[in-house]
Design brief:
Ser/Thr_kinase_AS, Phosphorylase Kinase, domain 1, two-stranded antiparallel sheet, protein serine/threonine kinase activity, alpha+beta, EC 2.7.11.1, 2 domains, globular, non-specific serine/threonine protein kinase, 11 strands
Length: 290
């Protein structure tokens, strides 16, 4: 059973739209210290949801997350059912909490720390994109920290999208808005003449989300609720770009962060750089990882 293999399920760690994450503690006689796991318990299948489609979604998420191995990505170890028959993903446990909690507690106090976290985020996303995976739900709540809060790891691949399969150079386009309000790129909201979502490059929406996260690290607030013309703050931002006028929250920053943020938050996805190119900038190369 789940408890026999990974220990007793206890403390609540987090909750999302499709799952609840709890802490598991495994104690073995031959170990001096217990082993801890984060257990992601998936939601129940919806009444109108076909069993095959539900299982496909769960397994697809695990297939992606379990294939990822990078210092800035959370490791997934197993997919099992609990005693109630609910699917659970077993992941490494990071006791530092998420980046959102650290920001909310005003514990990020220096620009060096901001840039350190941000560069780790870019390195994790660069790895994902190098193997053809876009996260599509990057936000501070999905960035988890180690015990000393010096290492950041990307978590929750429930919205991830494979935009390039192995041994293929053809780009697969995604459709439909995915993620959380302020971090959703403007092209994700677009519709064609028939009212269907327009296709978009999923890797470029990750770049946009990284830009918004960088903004929130500096200002401890989001720049807009949604990147749509109906949002007054986003509309003001786009207007400053068109008129080539300064947007104070960004243009008041030092040259390095300002240039990165401007490039990532370009409303036109084709004009956003790839993450690999962001890491090659002179500023990024000078940032020390904490």
């Amino acid at each position: 059973s789940l408890s026999d293999k990974y220990g007793l399920i206890g403390k609540h760690l987090g909750k999302g739209a499709n799952a609840v994450v709890r802490l598991a503690k495994k104690v073995d006689d031959w170990q001096k210290q217990p082993t801890y796991y984060a257990v992601k318990k998936f939601r129940k299948r919806g009444k109108d949801e076909h069993k095959r489609d539900y299982i496909k979604k769960v397994i697809a998420e695990f297939c992606i997350s379990s294939s990822l191995h990078h210092p800035n990505v959370v490791e997934a170890a197993d997919l099992v059912k609990d005693d109630d028959g609910r699917w659970c993903e077993i992941m490494e446990y990071l006791p530092g909490g998420d980046l959102y909690g650290r920001m909310a507690a005003d514990k990020i106090t220096t620009h060096d720390e901001i840039n350190c976290y941000f560069m780790q985020l870019l390195k994790g996303v660069e790895y994902l994109h190098s193997i053809g995976v876009a996260h599509r739900d990057l936000k501070p709540e999905n960035l988890i920290l180690t015990a000393k809060c010096d290492t950041l790891k990307i978590a929750d691949f429930g919205s991830s999208f494979v935009f390039r399969t192995p041994w293929s150079t053809e780009l697969q386009l995604a459709r439909g808005a995915c993620g959380s309000g302020p971090y959703i790129a403007p092209e994700e909201w677009l519709m064609d003449d028939d009212g269907r979502p327009k296709p978009y490059d999923a890797s470029k929406v990750d770049v946009w989300a990284c830009g918004v996260i960088y903004y929130t690290l500096f200002h401890n607030s989001v720049p807009w609720r949604e990147a749509q013309p109906s949002d007054v703050h986003f509309r003001a931002y786009v207007t400053t770009l068109r008129r080539e006028k300064p947007f104070t929250p960004i243009d008041s920053l030092a040259p390095g962060p300002r240039e990165l943020m401007r490039s990532m938050l370009h409303p036109e996805p084709d004009k956003r750089p790839a993450v690999a190119d962001l890491l090659k900038t002179d500023f990024a190369r000078l940032v020390e990882v904490c």
